[in-house]
Amino acid sequence: MHLARHVTLARTRAVVRRNSSTSTRPRRNALDSVLCEVASLRRDPSVLSKLVAENREAYPRQLLRQLRLNFTLSSRHVHIDALLKGLYPLRRDALVSALEPSHARGLQKIQSITQRIRTVAGKNLLEVRYADAPFLSGQLAVQLNKVARPDLPDTLVGGWLRALPAHLVRLSTVWERSLFDLDVVRRNAVQEIRIVEAYAAKRFPDWMATPDACCAFMHAYASTRVAPNTAKRHWNALHDAMTRGPASHLRYYAHALAAPRTLDALHAVWDKLKTLPCEYQRKAVNPEYLYALHLARLGAHGEATAIARKYPVDGWLAWFVDREVALTSSDGDSPYPGLGPELEEARCLARKNRQVADVLMQNGLDEEDVLYMLSTLHTPYSHFLHYEYKGAHGETSNEIADLEEDEEEERDSKPSRVNYSTPPHLLKNTRGY
User: Per the record, where are the segments of Acidic residues compositional bias (predicted)?
Assistant: First the structure.
């Protein structure tokens, strides 16, 4: 009740601020853009120092999140401490582990706080990264689950698996690459996943047989790029689980098609997937188009474009599958079905995605990293990549109210197309899949 009153009060104050003045909106909108660029790896995180100094009261939780993730900022603990002082006690306790010098010390801090907020604190610890520990170790992830949610696997065990691919992508950036031997980190990541898998298999055998668990382990192993056989084992388990249930979630298709590292393996996965019913929204990505995307990833561009041209241009994928024709052809000579405004809108989105991809590659990412980053189905980055600063009058007005959402709200499991004119850190459930 105490926390609920604070949230209600914060939302009331936000309404008063919005109704009383719009003079701060241009500065807020500019802050939105810079935060999104940092959060989506399009800008060096060194800019966070200036953001915290000048905008400490604007978006403290999003600033805290970026500070937890970016250990290259030498003064981040000073900034974290300053931001925490402005939060309510329960929120502060849930985030205080970020001040510790290591994950182990952070876990000790979580053990000392009240049980009711340990889950939130555990989620936050999953995002804390250090120069000698770019992700939480498997052993500490197991201990964290025992301390915070010993009865439930998906929140912290599943959360650790979902966070790992995003952490690995960060290692390719120009500001982190020199600090690690990426091949060594990837091999170590495989060993850490195996620790978590052994724990989950013993403690949560029923959960391990679910499609969500099979998919999470398959994706985590695949993201290391050095464990194709282990990823395939979990793909086989996922397929078995999918055949036993109703129509399968499109997220499973996205992960399964992203996992293979050879064309033969990809063909084999698609041969099984295409026989299964898929549950996806009318405007969602077509599963066969996802298949074409990964054919292009593995070099089969002719096969990929032949499939892609059976469907209207998809701006989310065409920038990579059939980049030249999809982006530049006119209505009269386009090989794609569909004409008019919808076709041009798709081309416009494809061109924007191409521009975003170019920036990410300049910052050190390779094509496989970029495909993961731009996915609308299974990445925490896509919302931040597609938000654009539109100036003082182009924003939604629910800034602080949405920012004050309860961090204990569970992650939404249904993918959807979102309004990318709303700053991503103001949307609910934007952590990806």
Answer: 401-410
